[in-house]
């Protein structure tokens, strides 16, 4: 049963998350510096500092600190941000929708456009179209996001004034960031789609489909695409981490909140609970992505379904 | 029984000479490869071909537009942009290439060990690797630089770590695939010791795709270095790197766009060339199947 | 006549790994196989795809560990050998593989591939390396000029000859041939078979010859073991003997004669080969057997020589 | 009747408008809450919710008369009890130090409140004028608990919190009842603007483009790099407020060769403040020659102690100290090259400045190797005493910053100079603890400041201005802006352009 | 029914197939034999009009099917023929079915496409055909996925697809090579029955001379992209004219007597890129003379068959 498989896979996430939480905790505490310096201000005394360190338990042995954190985590308590002064869960809840909107749309954009472009470049008989697609696909992954973002703003927001320069209000503000991030993703998806399509085109059964007299479009959409989508889905599912945390630079340039920005800000301020919370969230999302990918594969491919259940 | 077809197809695709010379065979390969060779030469001979000292400031002549004698203009300190772009090739290429070299070495070791020994070790390694692979590379790099401090060395290692997973996965996939090949069994049957199998058969056969993917990753490395530069990490001033230049105060985009447009264009062109040439290499080596899925 | 190889009750189970998601399943790839391989003889093993022929070959060479049973090679208990001793012993027992296309490392030249046995066994060839390579290539009927070629530059038949040269480099006593011609054209198959015949005569080799082609086995071998789903169902001490097991009979019936005048009506077998994972009780062939009786579905027949050569059937022909 | 304002980049990331518990507040806070007193750019104090105040001669008590008729956004009255309820809220917060000297708050009558001090605190008014001492409505404060300042906020200020999207924007709407502005504003009634939106835009060029395209009307804290471009925009005006901080280069006195005071002095003389202001700051802002902003009386030190560019003297000093110029332009002593670490933290303003400093140090034969750290790591470097020179800045318009950066009790960080010295400590103690009133305090801090200057512990470089740009087609912003920062008093006076 | 004349196929500059001719009447089975790479599959692909898939092109010759030349038939019309009047059975049943789709829809597609049936009619037809192919429980089989079935079963499904639209000509490209002998026997028997029952014309491509001997009426022997001999099956086996045919027959172990010896054919099959001049077989031919190296031999009539040899019938 597929459900049974999913259930056990989810169950398996628990021990894995535990080991990951240890790693994350270690990494966070390896960072030089501490959050306290971000709290104290001119006028406070050195004793105030010491008091703060005690208040946040930073003088405790790491093991104790970890156990406290994970213990609270276990009860659904993400802890309280030291510098940002809010419950970590609140901070994540505030930023997550932005990340999901931007990442989700960029994801959808790059999947749809990527699949379309990949399909065109794999099926076209025109060398020119193919090379053009290839160039376009290449271009997407060759410039850093912040750079592309600035150019996009200059052209579409300042010159043409089609979209607002920055902000997160309304759909129009999403267009440019989505395009910026999506552009890089398009390259990846198109590449994978293209290769996968070219591969399945060589399979024996495709020849037999032609021999049955099926028209090309039926073969493409009814048979080739489902095969080509298998690897695309896996790759996309594994990219869930990117959706949530990969948009840092773009968020920065477009002045959007988001999980990535939150993480970077907290990292800069050594706001341990926030960094830990965000990283654990990301790790969970990534594992969930893997899971979704596996389940999607199993759902799409009866052979895998059988092997796994 | 169709292997004849394969051989014939390869012959027809000009399957002659070394892979590199074959990659140079097509006109795209010639252009991309030629550009890369030129770029590497530029980076090597940078001190002799830069018209100005890349660090020499002339505060009275800041933000001068392209013209004579500063062909690509000057930045806010009056430094020659052309000289900095040329020197930047040195930094960006060497950081990226070194990072990828480290990443390949470590990744191959890990991946080969995981693929060869299998079992719990493999599962543990691959769990970690898959997890980091799915993490945005910029986050991995940022966290790593935050831990060991800024500078070219740490940037190099950060990039290496960000791409480690990719090479580990790829190598492991190669090894696992090769392990099933008959010639491995045949060699075991000759009485070969494990290290012979690993060093004389598995690794040499696994290396080509890893190198080619590594070559493609150099492009990604350049972009990642630039992005780290955006966060003020990476090459320390006044050492120029393309990334650092592109992000040297985005204010420059309006005041003196040439300061960040030119390095940006060079990055884009380089990465495109790397990708095109990498694709040609893949074609020349006929390893598309082996690269896929990682 | 001494036995070079004695196989007793050899079994191999492959376990599909269980996990939280599914039950572990065991599959008997080779089940209670016993036979002798006398020195200088050619024993053939026939059976359909998946019946465990290759697994048997690997077990004999200890490329995989048996689940059960004993193996004596030249009087010595193979299963008692340490990995290091085993590595030494491998020089005496070699194998030629089914798929010549992947049997040589694509990065090795022919001469390096042929010299590898010496490197691996840390032995010095009798003569200078180049001469040794030339001699070995000549022995298998290849032009020594091919020594510097890479595998992809030569044909399948040539590759298979290189495989044989490699296997013979250390002068083994036993050569296990796992469908050495299955992926080759008939004309090349004929070349290889005649080469093998000649080598056996010249070098006094002992062969275990595995094939799914009954006519080839009958042509080439002295004795035949017929396998069905991991078990030996019939052991024909002479290739001309008529079949006693219904499965062997079907196998013989299914082989066409290359002569349009010998056309006959084929009575095809009905039924499917059962899955090796959940074998029904009794004789594995019972479902397809025209002679099956009730006992066949309850009791597994054992190999017995009552009334002729050894056969595992409740109701032999 | 609306305006959109973009925060300065230093103000980003506030997660709450709770002035009592927050450690990070932005300009919008000052629109929600009023303070007892206000401070003007000349550092003088002005009445606001307190109409007058009186300090006892021994400094052990302060009495404030409060303005009448002030109400909180929730309609409750502001009176002495509001103050008495508010001060204790600071206990156990990170901001407790602001009221640490207040022993008790006594309600004298409805509009008179008295602070009983545990020690004299001449700096009390400064603290009371800070954003952290905007006064929240006690009832709402207790009722909302942790959510105060996030989901809602109640103060007496000219604007009410309407919506707060953390990290994105804050929408404030006019408090129509407002009639108690300080004398720093022209407009004594309710604000002209019905609504003000504050936006967080981390990237400065994006913020600039927003101003250009009308996405924001006012840009706070425009980096100096942008001034030139802004001047080219016809519809943009820029107002420069005197800044409240100094960019400087601390010298680690424990790290050779800077344990030699001559080398330290020479380093200071190498820096050409005027050239820096002219080149990378386009002449905006002022050179800094000592540690305090020039509007503070303590900055007015003996001119001989000011640090000014003098290459000849610097070279002479180095030669004196045994550092001889080598052929490659770097000085050498006993086979050691004069090569030093120059740290700074990320942020373009520092990296540019550091690169010029590096070039200027080269002029005296000192090779400086730059490393750019993030702010947390660089503090760790300081604490681990791994630094030599650093380029940094502070933003603080009070002379107690001297204690902060040079007290022997804070070695490493904030005392980046790693300086500790008996005389210095004595002067510090006098300035910090023995000043009974502001005159004494000024004199004591000036003496401390002069002593610090004599030790060559740092190199002053630049006094930035705070630049505020606005779209002249949209709004009129009073010029000059009064107060130390862009705050409620200015927003009250902003009108919408026709 | 089907007549192929002087067929030549090229991939870019190389021509792996040239001078292939044969004809096929209704109800006849034609065997095409030859070793790997001799161009058997290319011939099949040419007939099916599937060459463009792999980038090949017919450069000369004609393929007459029912009076119409297929070589210049437009694609839409060809599509009607394929799966309709021309059925194809491919070599490897393991990979010939779409692994992601259930069996039912894959077979249904043919009837829906060529017979214009709706879903339920098509399914009924599928079940009926599966039944005639002696597949047990055809109804449940329709809901199975390919990987759940054995190779022999899959090959029957492929045959069912080829038969669904009642074709006139069936092209079977090595239909049994990947199968076990017992299964091979079943499939061959099945094809044989079908030809008889439905009066089909069958092109049976194989490299196994025994299969040809068992089933075919006529045989074409191919070598290095050329048809070098063709004729009635008895003639080919009794009195092979071309030295290659003779040698090929000599390579098959009869398995019955001990005194025969296999020798094989010395040398190797030439590669498309170095097809020899003249008679393609001359470098390996024991009878080769000078002329064989220079001139391509023309077909020489012998009985009902023809052989392309300068010295036909000479004993090896
Ligand atoms: N390493 C393995 N793990 C699990 N199952 C295996 C393994 N090797 C072989 N098997 C299974 O054991 C059975 C016998 O396999 P084997 O390769 O011995 O068959 P064979 O007779 O050689 O077949 P063929 O003629 O196809 O080569 C098959 O069902 C196969 O799937
Ligand atoms: N797409 C192609 N491009 C170039 N050459 C090809 C192509 N397909 C086939 N060939 C060549 O055509 C020749 C005939 O191939 P074909 O597949 O028809 O052989 P075959 O007789 O079917 O062999 P097999 O028994 O291996 O299936 C081969 O030498 C092959 O190299
Ligand atoms: Mg086998
Ligand atoms: Mg073929």
TrEMBL record, chain A:
It comes from the Bacteria. InterPro entries: BPD_transp_1_N, MetI-like, MetI-like_sf. It is found in: Cell membrane. Keywords: Cell membrane, Membrane, Transmembrane, Transmembrane helix, Transport. The chain crosses the membrane at residues 7-31, 100-124, 136-158, 170-192, 228-254, 274-296. Residues 96-293 form the ABC transmembrane type-1 domain. It is a multi-pass membrane protein. Gene3D superfamilies: MetI-like (1.10.3720.10). Belongs to the binding-protein-dependent transport system permease family. This is ABC transporter permease. It comes from Parasulfitobacter algicola.
UniProtKB/TrEMBL annotation, chain B:
It is a multi-pass membrane protein. Residues 89-278 form the ABC transmembrane type-1 domain. PROSITE patterns: ABC_TM1. The keyword Transport applies. It is found in: Cell membrane. CDD domains: TM_PBP2. The chain crosses the membrane at residues 27-49, 93-118, 138-165, 206-235, 255-278. Keywords: Cell membrane, Membrane, Transmembrane, Transmembrane helix, Transport. Gene3D superfamilies: MetI-like (1.10.3720.10). SUPFAM superfamilies: MetI-like (SSF161098). Its main location: membrane. InterPro entries: BP-dependent_transpt_permease (IPR050366), MetI-like (IPR000515), MetI-like_sf (IPR035906), OppC_N (IPR025966). The keyword NADP does not apply. Belongs to the binding-protein-dependent transport system permease family. This is ABC transporter permease. It comes from Parasulfitobacter algicola.
TrEMBL record, chain C:
Residues 5-254 form the ABC transporter domain. One of its GO terms (molecular function) is ATP binding. Keywords: ATP-binding, Nucleotide-binding, Transport. It is a peripheral membrane protein. Gene3D superfamilies: P-loop containing nucleotide triphosphate hydrolases. It is found in: Cell inner membrane. Transmembrane segments: none annotated. Pfam families: ABC_tran (PF00005), oligo_HPY (PF08352). Its main location: membrane. PANTHER family: ABC TRANSPORTER, ATP-BINDING PROTEIN, TRANSPORT ATP-BINDING PROTEIN. This is ATP-binding cassette domain-containing protein. It comes from Parasulfitobacter algicola.
UniProtKB/TrEMBL annotation, chain E:
PROSITE patterns: ABC_TRANSPORTER_1, ABC_TRANSPORTER_2. Residues 2-249 form the ABC transporter domain. It is found in: Cell inner membrane. Its main location: membrane. The keyword Hydrolase does not apply. PANTHER family: DIPEPTIDE TRANSPORT ATP-BINDING PROTEIN DPPD (PTHR43297:SF2), OLIGOPEPTIDE TRANSPORT ATP-BINDING PROTEIN APPD (PTHR43297). This is ABC transporter ATP-binding protein. It comes from Parasulfitobacter algicola.
């Amino acid at each position: 049963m597929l459900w049974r498989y999913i259930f056990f896979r989810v169950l398996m996430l628990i021990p894995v998350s535990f080991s990951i939480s240890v790693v994350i905790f270690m990494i966070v505490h390896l960072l030089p510096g501490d959050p306290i310096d971000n709290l104290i201000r001119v006028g406070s005394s050195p004793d105030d500092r010491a008091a703060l360190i005690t208040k946040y338990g930073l003088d405790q042995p790491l093991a104790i600190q970890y156990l406290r954190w994970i213990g609270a985590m276990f009860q659904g308590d993400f802890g309280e941000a030291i510098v940002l002064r809010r419950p970590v869960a609140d901070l994540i809840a505030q930023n997550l929708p932005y990340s999901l909107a931007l990442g989700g749309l960029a994801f959808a954009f790059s999947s749809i456009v990527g699949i379309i472009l990949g399909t065109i470049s794999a099926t076209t008989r025109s060398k020119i179209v193919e090379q053009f697609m290839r160039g376009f696909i290449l271009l997407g992954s060759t410039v850093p996001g912040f750079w592309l973002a600035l150019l996009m703003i200059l052209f579409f927001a300042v010159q043409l004034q089609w979209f607002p320069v920055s902000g997160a209000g309304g759909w129009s503000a999403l267009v440019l960031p989505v395009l910026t991030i999506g552009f890089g993703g398009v390259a990846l998806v198109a590449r994978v789609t293209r290769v996968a399509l070219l591969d399945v085109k060589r399979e024996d059964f495709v020849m037999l489909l032609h021999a049955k007299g099926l028209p090309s479009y039926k073969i493409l959409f009814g048979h080739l695409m489902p095969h080509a989508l298998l690897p695309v889905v896996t790759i996309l599912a594994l990219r869930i981490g990117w959706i949530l945390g990969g948009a840092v630079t773009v968020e920065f340039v477009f002045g959007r909140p988001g999980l990535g920005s939150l993480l970077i800000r907290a990292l800069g301020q050594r706001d341990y609970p926030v960094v830990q919370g965000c990283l654990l969230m990301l790790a969970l999302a990534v594992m969930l992505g893997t899971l979704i990918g596996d389940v999607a594969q199993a759902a799409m491919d009866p052979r895998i379904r059988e092997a796994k259940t | 029984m169709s292997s004849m077809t394969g051989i014939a197809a390869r012959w027809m695709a000009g399957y002659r000479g070394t892979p590199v010379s074959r990659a140079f065979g097509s006109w795209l390969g010639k252009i991309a490869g030629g550009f890369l060779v030129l770029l590497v030469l530029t980076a090597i001979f940078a001190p002799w071909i830069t018209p100005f000292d890349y660090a020499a400031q002339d505060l009275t002549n800041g933000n001068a537009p392209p013209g004579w004698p500063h062909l690509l203009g000057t930045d806010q300190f009056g430094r020659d942009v052309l000289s900095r772009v040329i020197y930047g090739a040195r930094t960006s290429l060497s950081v990226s290439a070194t990072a990828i070299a480290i990443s390949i070495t470590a990744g191959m070791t890990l991946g080969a060990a995981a693929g060869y020994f299998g079992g719990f070790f493999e599962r543990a390694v691959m769990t970690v690797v898959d997890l980091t692979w799915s993490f945005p590379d910029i986050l991995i790099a940022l966290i790593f630089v935050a831990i060991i401090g800024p500078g070219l060395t740490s940037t190099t290692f950060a990039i290496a770590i960000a791409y480690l997973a990719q090479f580990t996965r790829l190598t492991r996939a190669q090894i696992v695939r090769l392990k099933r090949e008959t010639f491995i069994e045949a060699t075991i049957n000759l009485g070969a010791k494990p290290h012979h199998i690993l060093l004389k058969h598995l690794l040499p056969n696994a290396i080509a795709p890893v190198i080619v993917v590594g070559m493609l990753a150099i492009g990604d490395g350049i972009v990642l270095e630039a992005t780290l530069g955006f966060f003020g990490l990476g090459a320390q001033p006044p050492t120029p790197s393309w990334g650092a230049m592109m992000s040297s105060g985005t204010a420059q985009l309006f005041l003196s766009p040439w300061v960040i447009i030119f390095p940006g264009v060079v990055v884009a062109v380089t990465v495109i060339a790397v990708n095109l040439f990498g694709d040609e290499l893949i074609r020349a080596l006929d390893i598309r199947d082996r690269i896929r899925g990682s | 006549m001494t036995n070079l190889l004695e196989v007793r009750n050899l079994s191999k189970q492959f376990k599909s790994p269980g996990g939280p998601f599914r039950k572990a399943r065991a599959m008997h790839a080779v089940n209670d196989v016993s036979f002798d391989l006398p020195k200088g003889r050619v024993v053939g093993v026939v059976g359909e795809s998946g019946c465990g022929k290759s697994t048997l070959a690997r077990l004999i060479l200890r490329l995989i560990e048996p689940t059960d049973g004993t193996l004596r090679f030249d009087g010595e208990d193979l299963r008692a050998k340490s990995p290091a001793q085993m590595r030494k012993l491998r020089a005496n027992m070699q194998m030629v593989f089914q798929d010549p296309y992947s049997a040589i490392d694509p990065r090795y030249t022919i001469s390096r591939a042929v010299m590898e046995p010496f490197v691996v066994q840390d032995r010095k060839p009798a003569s200078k390396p180049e001469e040794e390579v030339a001699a070995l290539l000549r022995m298998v009927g290849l032009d020594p000029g091919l020594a510097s070629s890479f595998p992809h530059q030569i044909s399948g038949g040539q590759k298979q000859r290189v495989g044989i040269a490699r296997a013979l480099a250390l002068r083994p006593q036993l050569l296990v041939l796992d469908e050495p011609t299955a992926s080759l054209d008939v004309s090349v198959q004929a070349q290889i078979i005649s080469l093998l015949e000649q080598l056996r005569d010249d070098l006094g080799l002992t062969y275990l010859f595995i094939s799914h082609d009954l006519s080839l086995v009958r042509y080439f071998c002295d004795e035949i073991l017929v396998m069905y789903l991991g078990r030996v169902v019939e052991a024909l001490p002479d290739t001309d003997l008529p079949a006693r097991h219904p499965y062997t009979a079907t196998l013989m019936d299914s082989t066409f004669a290359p002569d349009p005048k010998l056309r006959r009506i084929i009575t095809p077998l009905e039924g499917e080969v059962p899955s090796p994972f959940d074998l029904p009780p009794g004789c594995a062939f019972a479902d397809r057997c025209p002679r099956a009786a009730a006992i066949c579905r309850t009791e597994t027949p054992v190999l017995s020589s009552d009334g002729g050569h050894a056969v595992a059937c409740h109701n032999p022909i | 009747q609306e305006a959109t304002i973009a925060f300065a980049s230093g103000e980003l990331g506030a997660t709450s408008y709770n002035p009592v518990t927050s450690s990070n507040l932005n300009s919008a806070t000052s629109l929600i809450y009023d303070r007892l007193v206000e401070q003007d750019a000349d550092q003088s104090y002005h009445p606001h919710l307190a109409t007058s105040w009186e300090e006892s001669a021994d400094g052990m008590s302060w009495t404030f008369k409060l303005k009448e008729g002030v109400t909180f956004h929730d309609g409750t009255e502001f009176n002495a009890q509001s103050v008495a309820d508010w001060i204790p809220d600071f206990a156990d917060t990170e901001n407790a130090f602001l009221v640490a000297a207040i022993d008790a708050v006594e309600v004298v009558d409805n509009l008179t409140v008295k602070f009983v001090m545990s020690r004299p605190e001449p700096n009390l008014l400064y603290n009371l004028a800070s954003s952290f001492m905007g006064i929240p409505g006690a009832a709402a404060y207790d009722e909302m608990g942790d959510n105060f300042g996030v989901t809602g906020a109640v103060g007496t200020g000219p604007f009410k919190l309407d919506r707060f999207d953390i990290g994105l924007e804050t929408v404030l709407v006019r408090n129509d009842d407002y009639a108690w502005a300080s004398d720093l504003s022209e407009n004594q009634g309710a604000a002209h603007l019905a609504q003000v939106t504050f936006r967080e835009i981390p990237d400065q060029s994006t913020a600039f483009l927003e101003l250009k395209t009308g996405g924001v009307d006012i840009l706070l804290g425009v980096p100096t790099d942008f001034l030139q471009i802004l001047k080219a925009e016809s519809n943009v005006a820029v107002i420069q407020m005197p800044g409240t901080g100094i960019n400087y280069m601390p010298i680690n006195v424990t790290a050779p060769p800077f344990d030699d005071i001559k080398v330290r002095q020479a380093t200071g003389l190498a820096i050409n403040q005027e050239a820096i202001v002219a080149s990378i700051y386009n002449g905006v802002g002022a050179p800094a020659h000592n540690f305090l902003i020039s509007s503070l009386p303590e900055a007015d030190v003996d001119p001989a102690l000011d640090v000014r560019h003098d290459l000849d003297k610097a070279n002479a000093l180095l030669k004196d100290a045994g550092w001889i110029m080598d052929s490659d332009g770097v000085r050498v002593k006993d086979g050691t090259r004069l090569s030093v670490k120059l740290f700074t933290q990320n942020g373009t303003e520092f990296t540019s400045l550091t690169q010029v400093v590096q070039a200027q140090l080269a002029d005296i034969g000192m090779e400086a190797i730059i490393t750019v750290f993030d702010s947390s790591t660089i503090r760790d470097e300081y604490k681990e005493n791994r630094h030599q020179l650093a380029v940094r800045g502070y933003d603080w318009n009070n002379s107690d910053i001297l204690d902060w950066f040079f007290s022997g009790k804070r070695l490493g960080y904030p005392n980046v100079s790693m300086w500790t010295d008996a005389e210095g400590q004595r002067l510090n103690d006098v300035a910090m603890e023995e000043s009974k009133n502001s005159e004494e305090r000024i004199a004591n801090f000036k003496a401390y400041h002069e002593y610090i200057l004599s030790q060559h512990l740092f190199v002053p470089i630049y006094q930035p201005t705070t630049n505020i740009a606005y779209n002249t087609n949209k709004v009129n912003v009073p010029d000059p802006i009064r107060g130390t920062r862009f705050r409620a008093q200015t927003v009250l006076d902003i009108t919408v352009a026709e | 029914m089907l007549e192929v004349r002087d067929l030549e196929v090229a991939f870019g500059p190389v021509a792996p197939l040239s001078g292939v001719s044969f004809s096929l009447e209704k109800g006849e089975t034609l065997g095409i034999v030859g070793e790997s790479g001799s161009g058997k599959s290319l011939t099949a692909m040419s007939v099916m009009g599937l060459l463009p898939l792999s980038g090949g092109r017919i450069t000369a010759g004609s393929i007459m099917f029912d009076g119409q030349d297929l070589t210049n038939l437009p694609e839409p019309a060809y599509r009607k023929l394929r799966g309709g009047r021309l059925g194809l059975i491919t070599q490897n049943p393991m990979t010939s079915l779409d692994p992601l789709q259930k069996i039912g829809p894959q077979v249904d597609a043919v009837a829906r496409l060529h017979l214009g049936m709706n879903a339920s009619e098509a399914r009924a037809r599928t079940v009926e055909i599966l039944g005639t192919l002696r597949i047990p429980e055809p109804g449940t089989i329709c809901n199975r996925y390919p990987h759940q079935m054995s190779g022999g079963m899959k090959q029957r499904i492929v045959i069912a697809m080829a038969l669904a639209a009642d074709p006139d000509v069936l092209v079977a490209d090595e239909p049994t090579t990947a199968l076990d002998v017992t299964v091979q026997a079943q499939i061959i028997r099945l094809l044989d029955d079908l030809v008889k029952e439905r009066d089909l014309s069958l092109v049976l491509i194989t490299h196994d001379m025994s299969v040809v001997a068992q089933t075919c009426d006529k045989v074409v022997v191919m070598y290095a992209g050329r048809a070098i001999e063709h004729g009635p099956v008895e003639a080919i086996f009794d009195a092979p004219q071309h030295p290659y045919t003779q040698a090929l027959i000599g390579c098959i172990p009869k398995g019955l007597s001990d005194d025969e010896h296999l020798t094989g054919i010395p040398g190797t099959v030439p590669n498309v890129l170095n097809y020899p001049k003249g008679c393609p077989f001359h470098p390996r031919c024991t009878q080769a003379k000078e002329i064989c190296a220079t001139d391509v031999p023309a077909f020489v009539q012998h009985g009902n068959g023809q052989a392309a040899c300068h010295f036909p019938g000479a004993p090896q």
